[in-house]
Amino acid sequence: MSVFTTVSAVELRRWLQDYDVGELADLQGISAGIENTNYFVTTSGGRYVLTLFEKLTAQELPFYLNLMAHLAERGVPSAHPVASRAGNYLGSLNGKPAALVARLEGADVAAPTAGQCAAIGAVLARLHLAGQSYPATMDNPRGPKWWKGVLPEILPFLPQNEAALLQEEIRFQSLYRFSDLPRGAIHADLFRDNVLFAGDRVAGVIDFYFACTDVLLYDVAIAVNDWCIDADGALDAARSRAFLDAYAAVRPWTPIERGAWPVMLRAGALRFWVSRLYDFHLPRPGELTHAKDPGHFRRILELRIRDEHALPGLAG
Fold it and tell me: What whole-number distance in Å separates Cα of residue 32 and Cα of residue 60?
């Protein structure tokens, strides 16, 4: 959510003429994140988030925007894109694909409680069930094929021990296919800063621009690796149990999911270690950008390997 492409108030007023949202009152760049340009937009008709897509193409974006609308229309608290007067969710602004999305209430939480972990676990299960009826598909753009593809670019930056760990974990993950695991539309980036709470209620799930069609359990692993950890990255038993039990109350686990859980936790950690290494060492120029610490997910991966036989399991 960084600002790579500058948008002036004059440019935005011209662009908003195609939307029934009233007159522009305020425009503020959002400095968090590293993938797209984002602005908070306030008009006489409401509050919105404007996103200019720096990597995703106009051909790819309907998958994400239509998924957000699909979920919101089925009761999942996801941000609904705003259609133009012509009925399109996607437009073009300053040479970039652009979309306006309703800004949801609430705020993210830095230190979630067990109750909040349970709330987002249940919402993620509802998201997965609602996504089963979403007809479009999208291969995971940062899945195993991508990990292998960027590995030669990343390795020269790493000390020998980290390079060895990265290569070995990619090899390890390549041994597992899990073709029988339940699949469907997943968020794939359900970190704490992508969920808005109003008290203990999930008010909104945002930033679907890594969404794809993949293993549902992989999505759970990504979320648990962020929501349910202590300061060192180890899984907190109470929050993990709350998250997983609340999820299973909505969508019960299959036997193969219970067996695959330790490997999926490692896969979720690996994916973000690779992404952060790539963004840290091979950044794009842009203002207000913040590449995140790759070491965080290296430590999480090391802990998931170390604690393989003591991880909170999928009960039920």
Answer: 23
Distance CA 46, CA 63 (A): 25
Give the separation between CA 29 and CA 45, rounded to whole angstroms.
19
Helix (H, G, I), strand (E, B) or coil at 29: strand
Q: What is the mean pLDDT of the chain?
A: 94
Q: Which of 80, 102, 124 is the last residue of a domain?
A: 102
pLDDT in tens, 8-44: 999 999 999 999 999 999 999 987 656 789 999 999 9
Count structural domains, the chain.
2
- The residue among 250, 277, 268, 257 whose CA lies nearest residue 304 is 268
Task: Say yes or no: 142 and 98 in one domain.
Answer: no
Cα–Cα distance measured from residue 251 to residue 182, given in angstroms and rounded to the nearest whole number: 11
- Phi-psi region at 138: left, alpha or beta (left = phi > 0; alpha = psi -120 to 50): beta
Q: Which long-range contacts link 277-285 to residues 24+ away (Cβ below 8 Å)?
A: 277/154, 277/157, 277/158, 277/166, 278/150, 278/153, 278/154, 279/34, 281/154, 281/157, 282/153, 282/154, 284/4, 284/54
* Domain boundaries, position 118: 114-310
Strand partners, 93: 96
pLDDT tens sequence across 82-94 = 999 999 999 999 9
111-127, pLDDT tens digit by residue? 999 999 999 999 999 99
**CA atoms of 17 and 23, how far apart (whole Å):** 9
Res. 287 pLDDT band, cuts 50 70 90 = very low
pLDDT at residue 177 greater than cutoff 80: no
Would you state the structure tokens that stand for residue 155, as one six-digit string?
Answer: 């390795």
227: left (phi over 0), alpha (psi -120 to 50) or beta: alpha
